[in-house]
Amino acid sequence: MSEFKELHLQALMNARWEEPDWQTLETTREGAWLLERHSMTERLKAHCRTLAVEVLGLHEIEQSALTENELSLLGEESCLVREVVLSGDGDAWLCARTLVPKSTLTEKEQDIADLGAVPLGQRVFNQANARRDAIEVATVVVEGQSLLARRSRLWVNEKPMLVSELFLPDAPVYQEEG
Question: Do 164 and 84 form a contact (C-beta atoms < 8 A)?
């Protein structure tokens, strides 16, 4: 799994994030996934019997390791980094990297650091005031294959997190619906 982790997480960290072309994307199958404002967990669950989460990594990084863009979206503080793969019925669908500022991990949100195999979206979107903003998209190339990615800021109880998601080759985003 370490080669997988290295390739896919590195691709996410090196992605060139851009504002989406909302008008064009909103009318496409891919756009429906990339512009999803609610729980990606729920959207993925609708395409499988079993959605599993494998934690690839959980560690802290200092604010000096964050990019200027990440700092502008989250504030200037150290973060917990959560790296996971979500799989539907045994097929890896999504590689995600979440930056959670230390100030987000207070009060009711302390448990976010200890989610383990619980999907972040399941935890966040159980809150009435959860929302997503600052959606950005990218196309990254992994082993010669172009893959879609998105980055967005999640808010829970007015506390931010930055989630980067890479749609892996077997993900439903690439399948014809029907």
Answer: no
Pairing of strands 51-61, 131-142: unpaired
Cβ atoms of 160 and 66 closer than 8 Å: no
The alpha carbon dihedral of 42, 44, 50, 55 has a sign of negative
Burial 81-104 (b: 16+ CB within 10 A, else e): bbbbbbbbeeebbbbbbbbbbeeb
Span 104-136, pLDDT tens digits: 999 999 999 999 999 999 999 988 899 999 999
Q: Is 74 annotated as a binding residue?
A: no
Contact between 112 and 104 (Cβ < 8 Å)? yes
> Could you give the CA distance from residue 34 to residue 173 in angstroms, rounded to a whole number?
9
- Give the class (CATH, top level) of 2-169: alpha beta
Query: Tokens representing 62?
Result: 């200092």
Return the C-alpha torsion angle 98, 41, 53, 59, nearest 10.
10
Instruction: List the chain domain ranges.
Output: 2-169
165 known ligand binder: yes
The response to whether 120 counts as a known ligand-binding position is yes
> Does the annotation list 82 as a binding residue?
yes
